[in-house]
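USER:
Make up one protein:

ASSISTANT:
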Amino acid sequence: MSDYDFELERVAREARGRGARALLIQAPDGLKQHLAEFYGRLEAMGFSPIISADPCYGGCDLAEGEARSVGADMIVHIGHHRFSEGEGREGGVPTMYVPAAHIADLRGLAAKAAGIMAGKGFRAVGLVANTQHLPYIGEFAKALEAAGVRSVVDGRTGGLVLGCRTAAATAIEGEVDALLFIGGGDFHALGVANAVEKEVYAADPYRGEVKDMAPLKKRELAKRWWAIMEAMRAKTFGVVVVAKSGQLDAGGARSLKARLEGKGRRVFMIAAREASWERLSGFAFADAIVVTGCPRVAPDNQASFPKPVLNMQECEELLKRL
């Protein structure tokens, strides 16, 4: 039995309702290893599932070309929520989003986190979570209240944070002493920490630990300012247009190109689905790279780039200083 709820019956019901038989299954790498039973049960129900091996970074990263090329009748996009209104169909192929909630008993972790928050003297703590752990916000709110700490959750988002969307945290920052993120790894928690001035802690359901994000945030900010300062010395830039439907911003890329050229820089426009050093290493003539897709691509991949790589916001900071 998987540790995640892939909502088999809902997937089957929607697929049948659409007359879909060939299903392209998209999932982030961390969830792919849990798909075997889901795949087998779909086959037993008469469907023809195909699992995409490509990376999947969020609801903005839809497998449009892949779905068409393999003849999929529907995309089952696992592990993420719909990224924006108007999505849900791409290239004429219906897309269904399955959050894949983590099935776990987090009462112990919730009590541990509440004790830490109370011990630090916080009177109000904001709760946010990633897609897999959003259902547990209520459990953590209950634990905080039991420890004498008021919990605050943004009503519009329900506390959900995505990789580059942290409104669930910024909307309530003024009401709380600190924020508590529920979810594994550093990716989302660091995004929250970078978006707010208040202290941020991460309750990791996989490690059973509660971590202060301040040290990691400090290191991250230092790296980003290093990239901006290094890019000031660059004479040639590669501006990358990320060719994914949810990240495409050709207009923004052209605007940055014109403004960099106005500062006397040579600029090459580059299109890529994956803005990784593996894909961009051939452009050795570019002294610095600007990625105009997901704002997390640059900071999360700088270590693999031997030259500065900026996102659009960082390029704005650069332009102010040129």
